[in-house]
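Blackboard transcription, Thursday session:
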Amino acid sequence: MTDSLTFIGRSLRHSVRSIDALLTAILLPVAIMLMFVYVFGGAIESDGRYVDYVVPGIIVLCAGFGSASTAVAVALDMTTGVIDRFRTLPISSAAVLTGHVAASVARNVVSTLLVIGVALLAGFHPQADPLDWLAVAALLLALITAISWLAACFGLIAKSVEAANAITFVAAFAPYLSSAFVPPDTMPAGLSWIAEHQPVTPIADTLRALLLGLPVGDEAIVAIAWCVAGIVIGRLGAAYLFARR
Amino acid sequence: MAYTIEAEGLTKSFGATRVLEGLDLGIEAGEVFALLGPNGAGKTTTVRILSTLLMPDRGSARVAGHDVVGERHAVRAAISLTAQEAAVDGVLTGAENLRMMARLRRVEDGRQRTHELLERFDLADAADRRVATYSGGMRRRLDLAMSLVSRPQVIFLDEPSTGLDPRSRLAIWEAVQALADDGATILLTTQYLEEADRLADRIAVVSDGRISALGTAHELKSRVGEETVELFFADLDALATAEARLGGGGRGDGLSLRVPAAGATDLRRVLEALDGVAIERLELHKPTLDDVFLTLT
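(Written on the board underneath:)
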C-alpha cells in the first residue's frame, strides 16, 4: 500500500509535468463536446433536445478516450530502464501500474468535470437529484478505472508506444457504434445489433437516465457488470502481464 | 566456505541463440569480482539472472544465501542493480528520484540519506533539476546513488562506465572503490581491461557463455607471459656487444633487443651488464589484460 502511494505520487508528477499531454487529455474532450453540440447538433434531430441526448454520450466518450491514454503512459514507461530497477526491489512491483491507473483516474475526473461544466454552459439541462449525481459519479469512476486498467494491459502487450496508441482509437470509436450519439434503432440491422450488445450502450443509457431524471432500468445492472468485469480482468491481467515481461 | 554469490551450471537461450552454456561462479563476501568479456559473451545475462530479472533455463544460483528463482524476494532485499542503461526517472528531479528509492526501500530518514548521496556524488547543485536535463555522467552517478540508498549487501554493476568521459569514469571508479572499502560484495561486468584491473580482486574472463579463465589480474597476466625490456641501440656494433654481454635475447625490428626483465632487480642487472654500451632508449613491456583477453577469448 505504501508502495502504491509512492508510485501514485510518481505518476501524478509525470502527469502534471508533461504539459502537452495534460492539455490534450483535458482540452480534447471539451473540444469534442463543443463539436457535437454546435457542429453536428444542428443537423441531428432526436425526440427531445439533442444536447440533452448527446451530452451523456460525450461524457462516456471523453472518459473512455482519456482513460485509454494510460496505455501510452504504461508503454512509454516500460521502455525506460527505471522499470528494471523497480523489478529488483523487494516490493510488489506491479504497484507501478497502480500509480499509472490512479493518475489516469485523477486526470479524467478533472476533464470529465470540465466537460460537464462546458455542457451546462452549452445549454445542457440535467434533471438529476443529488442521489442521481452520486450514482453518476460512481458509474463514471468505475468506467474510468475499468478502461484505465484494460488500457494498462494493452500498454504492456504493445511492442511500442505507437502500437499502444492504437487502443485510444478503439476507445474513441466504440461510442459511435452505440446509443451514445444516436439511438441504435436508427442504424442498419447488423450495426444496431452490435450497438445494443456492446458495453458503451448500457453505460451511456444509464448515465442518460440518471442525468435526465428518467427511470433507470435493467441496463444499469448490465452497465455495472461491464465496469466491474473490466476492473477485475484489467487488474489481474495487468499484474500477470507485468510479471511476464 | 559459503559464497555470497554462487552459480552452478547456468544455461540460458533466447530462441535458438545459446547465451550461457554452463556458467559457474563463486564470489566471496566483500570481494570485488569482475566479469570481463566482449559483447555477447553472456555477462549481462548472468547479471540479470543473479538479480532475479531472468530465470535460467538450467542450473541454479544463490545470492546472499537465497535462491534467485525460489526466494526472489529475499534476494531482492539484499541486492541492488545498476544496469547498463541508466535506471533513472527522467521526469523527476535527482532528489525526487532518490527520495522515491528511499521510500520504496523503507529507508529511515530518506531525506537525510538523499542529501548525503547528492553531496557524495557531486549532484547537490543539480538536485532540483529534472534528470532529463542531466549529462550522461550525471545520470550515471545518480543511477549509482539510487542503488546505494539502502546500503545493499550485494551490488551488481553492469558496465558501470560504458560511454562515460574519463572524468566521470574516474568518479564512478572512486565510488565503487569506496563501496568495496565499506565491505559490500560487488559483481561488475566490463569490456575495459583497465577497469577490471583497477577495481577487481578477481577477474573471470567470459567467452561464449562460460568462464574461460579465472584469477587475480596478476595471475591472469602471468599466464600470458613475462615482463620484458626492449633496448634500442644506435648502431649494429652496440647491438652486437649487448647481445654478447647478455648472452642472447630476441632481436626486434631494427636495432633493438628484447630480454626478460621481471621487476627492478632484473632491470638493474641488465643495465649494469651493458655499462659503457650506448643505449638510445628502452621500453618496458608488461603483458596487459589486453593480451589476456586476446589470448584467452
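Lecturer's comment: The mean pLDDT of chain B is 87.
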